[in-house]
Amino acid sequence: MATIFKRTSVLTDVPFHYCPGCGHGIVHRMVAEVIDELGIREKTAGVAPVGCAVFAYNYFDVDMYEAAHGRAPAVATGYKRVHPENVCFTYQGDGDLASIGTAEIVHAAHRGEKITTIFINNAIYGMTGGQMAPTTLVGQKTTTSPLGRDKNHCGEPIRIAEMLATINGSAFIARTALNNTANLVKTKAAIKKAFEAQLAGKGFSLVEILSPCPTNWGKSPAEAMDWLADNMIPYYPLGIMKEV
Amino acid sequence: MALKLMKGCEAIAEAAIQAGCRYFFGYPITPQNDIPEYMSLRLPQVGGCFLQAESELAAINMVYGAAGAGARVMTSSSSPGISLKQEGISTCCAAELPCVIVNMMRGGPGLGNIQASQGDYFQATKGGGHGDYHTIVIAPSSIQETVNMMGKAFDLAEEYRIPVMILADGLIGQMMEPVDMPNNPNPTMHDKPWAATGYKPGGAKQRAIINSLYIETEDLDTLEERLQNRYAVIRGKEVMVETYNTEGAEYILCAYGTVARVCKAAVRLCAEQGVKVGLVRPITLWPFPTKEVHDAIAQDSVKAALTVEVSAGQMYEDVRLAVNGCKEVAFMGKAGSMIPAAEDIAERILKMRRA
Ligand SMILES: Cc1ncc(C[n+]2csc(CCOP(=O)(O)OP(=O)(O)O)c2C)c(N)n1
Ligand code: SF4
Ligand SMILES: [Mg+2]
User: Fold this and answer.
1) Would you say the ipTM is above 0.90?
2) Which CATH superfamily is domain B3-198+224-237 in?
3) Atom of ligand 1 nearest to the CA of B87
4) How many other CB atoms sit within 10 Å of the CB of residue A182?
5) With an 8 Å Cβ cutoff, is A42 touching chain B?
6) Domain map of chain B by residue range?
7) What's the gap between Cα B284 and its chain centre?
8) Is residue B281 predicted with pLDDT exceeding 90?
9) Is the domain defined by B242-354 classed in CATH 3.40.50.10190?
10) How many Å lie between the alpha carbon of B67 and the closest alpha carbon of chain A?
11) Regarding predicted confidence, which is higher, B189 or A82?
């Protein structure tokens, strides 16, 4: 029988631990496929975050680091300065990148650090059980905003892609979503462009990916995709924010 | 031997380069700014990389990244900055990454002041960050000794895959002394088969995973056993200590760093008064020279010991543990940055003798 679809060899055969309908697994596969297609697996190192993707080092079959919460861009900086000829990516959630690690991500961009960041925005802290993230939408209920996020109390959600696009060191910044096939195709294309920007030595690159967390949103996988399309995309416009 | 007058911070930085250090990540803080400043000029000249990080937190995590990539790497800071680095130091210990961290201690707590102090002894020797770990802590008392220790620090770090801290005080960083700088174009580098340098499936080298997470209870237990066994070896083999005039002494002074130099002067002042006083100076604060401190103080000739520190009494606890009640151990020192004078130390000994 002809094989029409198989696991990319840049992923190990360890089964993902992610919940049904989670976006992390989809993005892992895309990142791995891009690494494979660009022929860079032997010179690539990844940095896993603290968050649901904490075990990414078990899944990507390349040299991997696990960083402390939010520090992945600093760790990647250390790696990349030692091996400038190699490729380095960080994979981070919105608590990791947009809250505890804001200083590290802003300054990696500001230095034009030649790394690629895959940023999973699921509007929540997945791993710790659904607390509010800086990206949580106004009115969205989480375990630490039980009545819905109140902007007078804790502000409005932060738009990371737009913010980082204002920084001169950024070479490629895009936001995509996982809610339908067309957006999946665009997501993978953006990931590829981000790695290509790094390979060309242009500077810092990041793809913010709107991704479902059915478990902590209290929705079925299908409902979660609809909620993402109806609520997240209007607040977080998709597209390429910067390309040099 | 060509002696050159050098400022402590610059001598440390040059000695690190001579020891093969090629990467430095740091953030400015007094009184150690001359280290990053010197590195920013010198490292590019030797094919290395200096980077000013956005914070001490970022700096130590860059160290984590570079150490994991197989580099000889260091960072330096002073007390408040070292507090920020603790997350990364704990992480480096768990991930078994070699690196060198210099702490030019200043007075604390909080922002404290910018004068020399020894208030970070507990933080340096008892862990500092979370979890069961140690770093090797070396406390030199002169610029020359610091210079001599830099190569040793990197070697120990790589041999045991452990962060090594140079715990000096602001005085060492800021004063100038004649230095005999080693000239070592080819320092020995340890093999690092575990480092992230690229991975080819099916190749000889295993995939690198630089990690501090051991989610299974048994796995963390295995790591801790490995670390604790390694610490036992380090305790057995790597203690460094200086004893001065201790044999047959009536009183023993215990001090480290620049304070030990003041104590040596006090030893001589006491000798002029016909009182035989000795000094035990731990050079490694961890591993602590428990046996040497004990043996010096437990001698029949010794009436009592006096620990002198620029702190409220931190190493004092380790000295008392070493002596384990067999002799009286007194303490002299103040928290902050008040460095005791040799005359005052001598006077204190003479007073103990009169009592
Ligand atoms: C210093 C520190 N603070 C807090 C935590 C607890 N923690 C683990 S994961 C996490 C949030 C992760 O959320 P996010 O980055 O959005 O990732 P997700 O799980 O949603 O993919 C937090 C706060 C930690 N491990 N370390
Ligand atoms: S909790 Fe959310 S982000 Fe985490 S694995 Fe489950 S669905 Fe994915
Ligand atoms: Mg999240």
Assistant:
1) yes
2) Thiamin diphosphate (ThDP)-binding fold, Pyr/PP domains (3.40.50.970)
3) 1
4) 9
5) yes
6) 3-198+224-237, 242-354
7) 7
8) yes
9) no
10) 8
11) A82
